[in-house]
Write a structure and sequence with these properties.
Layout (H helix, E strand, L loop, with lengths): L2 E5 L3 H13 L3 E5 L2 H10 L4 E5 L10 H13 L5 E5 L4 H10 L3 E4 L4 H34 L10 H14 L5 E4 L6 H10 L8 E5 L5 H9 E2 L11 E2 L1 H4 L4 E5 L6 H13 L1 E3 L6 E3 L3 E6 L3 H6 L5 H7 L2 E4 L10 H15 L6 E2 L1 H9 L5 H15 L4 E2 L32 H15 L4 H7 L4 H10 L2
Parallel strand pairs: 1-2, 1-3, 3-4, 4-5, 6-13, 6-14, 7-10, 10-13, 15-16
Antiparallel strand pairs: 8-9, 11-12
Helix pairs in contact: 2-3, 6-7, 13-15, 16-17
């Protein structure tokens, strides 16, 4: 409930204003001096101040009121102040507005005019607060985002990057497809950085981890008190990505119910935060990604065809690492350098036997698997030298990934692994065993799809 502070030395006027405003749904608090108002605004949350212009020192010229406006604005620059006086003059009204007052009301006031003014300026305050929060969040996101610099010697990948560079200049929605671990989120950020929206925010959200119950709140935001756990306002992904790019990862994992909501926003380009009546415009560019075969999902009525056509103005397939073998060693060396620096370890180097093993290994987990492998060996190798045994690879001849007989584990016998590393390898191995099918991999481990994605997020 919005709170109005009434600053007037007449208790009768305070009582009349409280009667009117409480009937309009506001909470009211009254004080009789500007000093009391300063103390109250400094310690309490106030949405609007109704300020009389004349007090005991000066009952007609409004000097105390003008001074109070300036001091209140110093305490809270976004606080709307509606001034009231029975000694109204044009000069006083102009001076009050110059000092920062939101409106000027003559006494005796018109109830409807006053109520409308309060409503309008409280809504404007909320909008300004949202803008300040959004600007701060955007600045924070920009500072945490890293510039994407791809390492590639592969002609295949270079052609993909050239295509994405060209597409980035358009406003088309782009659908990225490809296997798990190919780095689709990095390609999405690459598109953003090479677009005309690069100064805006790049917001990424994993749709596989968003339940139907949280969909509206995550995507569109909510107002404080909109539901039981809404203890404060939340800015949704669409708002954060305004005039920027919104990356919807694992789009195929949305339920049909959530797909319908997303389709409506993409078609109408409008949305509303939960608990708000204000209609907001969607100005975000949509980049989405999936490792699923959407045509099969459409045929099985698990994915809406109309949403598919909204998302894939153009579709780009990201190649797996095994299709770009020239990139394996440069990527491995880059990851080794990165993790050696991050963990303050000596710069690790690949021995010839490790190089040979990497070239022969089939990375079904793609770049993600290679990245985590290099992170692990920074800790497990001796004297900063990485040998084939440090890579903990299975022999190609007996990899269960290629076996038709299921085994309970494909984790190598390495007693130096931490519990997190064992869990991580189990997830990737099980996913590879099931050919990248998340539903089967999750079910085989007794996990729901959302629980699976939460665990995968933990390991990037």
């Amino acid at each position: 409930m919005k709170k109005v502070l009434i600053v007037d030395d007449s208790l009768d006027i305070q009582a009349s204003l409280k009667f009117l405003l409480e009937d309009e749904g506001y909470t009211c608090h009254g004080v009789v001096t500007p000093d009391a108002a300063f103390d109250y605004v400094s310690t309490q949350e106030v949405d609007l101040v109704l300020l009389d212009m004349n007090f005991t020192q000066d009952t007609t010229r409004g000097k105390e009121g003008l001074a109070a406006i300036s001091q209140l604005m110093q305490i809270d620059p976004l606080l709307p102040i509606v001034v009231m006086t029975g000694w109204a003059t044009l000069d006083l009204a102009v001076n009050a507005l110059k000092q920062g007052a939101a409106d000027f009301i003559e006494k005796p006031w018109d109830d409807e005019r006053l109520a409308h003014s309060i409503k309008v300026h409280i809504e404007k305050r909320a909008d300004r607060q949202d803008l300040v929060r959004l600007s701060a969040e955007n600045e924070r996101l920009k500072k945490t985002q890293r510039s994407i610099n791809f390492v590639t010697q592969s002609e295949h990948k270079q052609r993909v990057l050239a295509q994405l560079t060209q597409l980035a200049q358009s406003e088309m929605n782009i659908l990225l497809t490809g296997e798990n671990g190919t780095g689709k989120s990095y390609y999405a950020q690459y598109i953003h950085e090479h677009s005309r929206r690069a100064d805006g925010s790049f917001i990424s959200i994993n749709m596989g981890a968003v339940s139907d119950e949280l969909f509206n709140s995550e995507l569109f935001g909510h107002k404080k008190g909109a539901f039981t756990d809404a203890k404060e306002d939340r800015v949704g992904a669409f708002t954060l990505a305004s005039n920027g790019s919104l990356f919807l990862d694992e789009i195929a994992n949305l339920s049909l119910r959530s797909q319908a909501k997303l389709l409506q926003v993409l078609e109408e380009r409008k949305y509303t935060a939960v608990g708000s009546h204000k209609v907001l415009e969607n100005t975000a560019r949509i980049i989405s990604a999936t490792n699923s075969k959407l045509h099969d999902a459409i045929a099985n009525q698990a994915f809406r065809q109309d949403l598919y056509y909204r998302l894939n103005t153009v579709e780009v397939e990201i190649p797996p690492l095994r299709a770009c073998p020239e990139d394996i060693l440069p990527l491995a060396e880059r990851f080794l350098s990165q993790f050696s620096h991050n963990y303050k370890k000596p710069l690790a180097s690949l021995m010839p036997c490790a190089v040979k093993a990497l070239k022969q290994y089939e990375f079904l987990g793609n770049v993600r698997e290679l990245k985590h492998m290099m992170e692990r060996v920074v800790f497990t190798c001796a004297n900063a030298k990485v040998f084939a045994s440090d890579l903990a690879l299975n022999n190609a001849s007996d990899q269960s990934l290629h076996s038709t007989t299921k085994s309970t584990s494909v984790i190598p016998e390495n007693h130096d692994l931490t519990l997190d590393e064992i869990v991580e390898q189990a997830l990737f191995s099980r996913l590879a065993f099931h050919g990248g099918n998340v539903s089967k991999a999750a079910k085989s481990l007794g996990l729901s799809r959302s629980a699976w994605y939460r665990k995968m997020d933990k390991y990037e």
